Amino acid sequence: MESLRAEMTTTEAILKTLQDRIGPQCFNAWFRGGATVILEDAHVRVSVPNPFVAHWVETHYCGEIAESAQAHTGLDRPVLVTVDPSLSGKVRQGQLDKQADSVAKANEGRARPRRLAPRGLLRYHLKDFIVGESNKLAYSAALAAASPEGPRFTPLFIHGACGVGKTHLLQGICNAVAGRRRGEKPFTWAYLTAEQFTNDFIQAIGQKKTAEFRARYRGLDLLAIDDVHFLAAKKATEEEFLHTFNAIQTAGRQVVLASDAPPNLVGRLNEQLASRFMAGMTVRVDPPDAPTRLAILRRKVETAKLHVTPEVIDYLAAHVRGSVRELEGALIKLTALAALHGETLSLQRAREALADHIARTDSVVTLGDIEAVAASFFGVTPADIHSSRRTRTVSAARMVMMFLARRHTTMSFPEIARYAGKNHSSAVLAVQRMERLLADGSEIAWTGPAGVKSMPAEELVAMLAAEFPSR
Fold it and tell me: Which pLDDT score, from 0 to 100, does residue 166 have?
């Protein structure tokens, strides 16, 4: 009991330091109530409600979390971000609106610049990537992109829902080329998110250092951009990135990109950029199938030295069908429960503990898959869908997401509503409205950069559903 109390005190101190580092607004939006931070022997574990928040926390706050933990423990622990769907019900609407505001500020380049990871310190390596049917083409393409023989195709465009391994592949490519030489010169590369590229460009304009900015990026041997859908609707940044892309490609060098959706389904993306992206190799990463999930779990149990029976591992692999983060989150939840009771977890107890989690993910398609595709197509973010915003575009994206969730998952109206931060009646009305549009052969309208756009509801639904994984 004493050690548990001491751990709680340390955790509270870490959270206070984290709040001081990132500011109360960001802390309240992403961590208060809707996330748990637990200090463990091997790492700092952060559990969040859904894959989008997991990706946002991982790409924006892992550095501050690790530094806050080190300040109070003296140890440098890696940060593990996992998904626990049961946290969805603890996030209030005001907090969801703050998340949307935070993402909007980043989209507009008004957020504070993020620190870039130092070269050679990227987290993921290709040798650690678990390969299965759902990702083997993307993995093979990543190996080819990292080949010393030079690019066989450029760009390589990898797309898929949050938490399926896109970042792992991009960082793995960069780590594979680190230290390589091109003749007498070092091989130059950069990995960054599209948000970081945007902020860097805006900062260069403000400091009148655009020449240095262009020299830094256009001369690279390899440029890896994560979350490239973030560039959509940013006219000046899109134009600058187009010139950067052309310069690297013309020189016969490599560009690797990752996005939540394929180029033709990234709403509000510059047509020239979409055309350039489609001209390369486009590959999709699906959530892991059962054999891949089993391999991931076994690797995790082995490396983290967790005490889990083979029966429980088999059960997890068969029933938790979401992203890798959701899979890891379920495993961590079970091991924490076992540690709390001081016993090896039985299969029956595992079933009981994960009943709600599995109800949310026991479908061929998960809400994370649907949300990523719908948000990218309409040019909004999952945070917008969860917020109280009611613009034409956000409302259309939310309606389509809820309708597709009812059609392609086993989730009930209350579960869908809770995931999106809405009430039961909102989900029912959204689905009913969509059904009327389909029955009448009507169109769905939304606002793009060039004004109002529309598409027959039936055509739109079919096009988005074609992007869902089949496993």
Answer: 95
